[in-house]
Write a structure and sequence with these properties.
There is one protein chain. The two termini are about 20 Å apart. The protein has one helix at about 5-15, and strands spanning about 20-25, 30-40, 45-50, 55-60, 65-70. Strands 4-3-2-1-5 form a five-stranded antiparallel sheet, with helices on one face. It has one domain (about 5-70): SH3 type barrels, CATH 2.30.30.100. The protein has about 70 residues and is of the alpha+beta class. Helices cover about 20% and strands about 50% of the residues. β2 (about 30-40) and β3 form a beta hairpin. The protein is built from one helix and five strands; from the N terminus they run αβββββ.
């Protein structure tokens, strides 16, 4: 998945504001709080945590089917 400029802006605002995002990957929805967007091994990755358990997740952008900021 390639994000548009608007989608990058929305993701960056969600990281700054601590807002939740919904990421669909392989038919599964992940509802997480993004902490940072990083580049690892030439791939973009969202470092996030689960809102209830606090468990850390790494979600690769190129594996995501869709990403939306939850309002």
């Amino acid at each position: 998945m390639h994000l548009t400029v608007k989608q990058y802006d929305a993701l960056e605002r969600a990281i700054t504001d601590g807002r939740r995002i919904s990421v669909f990957r392989r038919g599964t929805e992940f509802l997480v709080i993004p902490e940072k967007l990083v580049l690892r091994h030439r791939r973009e990755c969202i470092e996030a945590r689960h809102p209830s358990t606090g468990a850390h997740l790494s979600l690769w952008l190129d594996e995501a089917e869709s990403i939306e900021v939850v309002k």
